[in-house]
Amino acid sequence: MCGIVAYIGSQPCGPLLLEGLARLEYRGYDSAGVAIFDGDRVARLRAEGKLRHLMDRFAREPVEGSVGIGHTRWATHGRPTENNAHPHMFDGVVVVHNGIIENYLELREELTREGHRFSSETDTETLAHLIARARRRTDTLRDAVREALTHVRGSYALVVLSEEEPDQLIATRIASPLVLGLGEGEFFAASDVPAILRHTRRVIFLEDGDLAVLRRERVEVEDAAGTPTERPVREIHWDPVSAEKQGYKHFMLKEIHEQPDRIIDTFRGRIDQLRETVTLRELDALAPALSDAPRILILACGTSYHAGLVGRYALEAIARVPVDIELASEFRYRDPVVAAGTIALAISQSGETADTLAALQEAAARGATPIAVCNVMESSLTRQARATLYTQAGPEIGVASTKAFTTQLAVLYLFALWMGRRRGALSEEEEASLVRALVHIPQQMTAFLEQENALREQARHYVNAKSMLFLGRGNQFPIALEGALKLKEISYIHAEGYAAGEMKHGPIALIDDTMPVVVIAPAGPTLEKTLSNMQEVRARGGRVIAVAPEGTEGIAAEAETTYWVPRTEDHFLPLLTVLPLQVFAYAIADARGTDVDQPRNLAKSVTVE
After folding, report:
1. Active-site residues: which are they?
2. What is the pLDDT of residues 534-582, one digit of tens each?
């Protein structure tokens, strides 16, 4: 997830671009750049790191001009360096891009054979080369962009500037957001409304396949077929702070709703929907060793530990490989036995969690193959690992993790399917069936989250609770732990997660009519036992809140409140059952008036012991 801003008009655009990027920096902050036509050529300034480095450079090397494009980057392909920073440029064609070009390696090889030379490691630079090549045989920049994109598979929000036709900008999108801002004699394009809200409140949200030509006097929009079309002009009434949250009250709520798209991003380039297979190119070099590994050791803390617990169930069930999971903070302070050839799989959103870094180092020193699951390129964890499975959550602003957790689950499921095929534990037909279910999950998540307002109303009935229990069996036990953690983190209500079978071994003593108990109850072989747990809670006056797949028999009769989630393969159900628990925790915290995005005593990344 990166930030794009572009301008064409009569004002000096450098300050406008930098201001817009500052309002989009939550979308990416590993590098930034601008490209401005100065009357003779396109001048490009880029800088590694936070946006302030680019601002400092612009102050030293100002560029005059009234048409330009800018970008703040969240790295997906290529390290966060100045060479990999956008805008990318080739033969007078300059591009900024948000998204992932899935076939960029084959395109890059094709262009290299034709004599093209690349200066970055990114997928985006391929677009500049494709458009420049197409421009040699088309009449206009618009036609060149159209022709070039016929060769591209993947997602993009793309803005193009050309030295040959500097009186226009081309903007287009597939599966990544892009909004146009309409001013008087000036026009804007941006990934998100906050970038342009100070200058105009009249916007057009481009649809998939749309292509827009922005000139100083007008904007023309074509649909995916190239037919001129009129998209509705909308008036934005958000204030700038709300706009950064896209109208949501808190970043956490926005990030809950982003999860379907971020999981799609995580799947891109890794799932071949035509062949219904999983490909993890990141692991190709290590494939023989990983396939023969005698055991997997998962190391993580906090929410990442809960993701690892779910991953253990999936890896053992799908790949039939033994899995141990350790709290990273405990692993390093004992004398663990690590068999040679073990895969040490460390999970961390930031890649800077001190305990996880130390644990992975310890495991590697004892002969394990270190692999990372991480959201941040070039973080300490990824440099320590021999390979990294990147989640594509984008920057997560809310301290209580939501989309980082579900994208970790998505990566772990992909890894389980990949391992299952390579170990011979999963047939081609079984993989295809599971892939079909997995790719349907984001759509199911979106449908469920459309009920968010109703879900929040139900949750507010429990706002005065002093303590809660969360119960789950099988792969729902980690979701019970995660649900309890979310509630503790942001509402400051004491909550504990338990394996449901353990309820009678102590926690049942706590249950009375003041104790809400959240029970995650998937259909399947444990349903009868879970219903028995619910009956035991009710018999002691407890208030049962159930989370269950739609139509599960017996649930409604035992629960005071039920959150129904869509049905899917049991392996993947945690991606759906965690959603009501995220909304539940958010609704209670919001009603109690706590600081949802920055809860007391917590930090986003625990970089010290």
Report:
1. 2, 604
2. 888 888 888 899 999 998 988 988 889 999 999 999 999 999 999 999 9
pLDDT for residue 605 = 54
Assigned token pair, 148: 């070039």
Terminal-to-terminal C-alpha distance of the chain: 30
Positive or negative: CA dihedral 551, 555, 559, 563: negative
Phi-psi region of 400 (alpha: psi -120 to 50; beta: other; left: phi over 0): beta
In a domain, 389, yes or no: yes
Q: Report the half-sphere exposure of 322 (CA within 13 A, side-chain side).
A: 8
Number of other CB atoms surrounding residue 285 within 10 Å: 11
Q: How confident is the model at residue 516 (pLDDT cuts 50, 70, 90)?
A: very high
> Residues 315, 418: one domain?
yes
On the 0-12 / 13-18 / 19+ scale of CB atoms within 10 A, 428 is: exposed
- Rounded to an integer, what distance in angstroms lies between the CA atom of residue 490 and that of residue 498? 20
Tell me which residue of 572, 492, 585 sits closest to 545, measured CA to CA: 585
- Answer yes or no: is 151 within a domain: yes
The domain tally of the chain equals: 3
User: Within 13 A of 277's CA, how many CA atoms are on the CB side?
Assistant: 9
Q: How far apart are CA 445 and CA 406, in angstroms?
A: 11
Helices (H) and strands (E) in the chain, counts: 19, 27
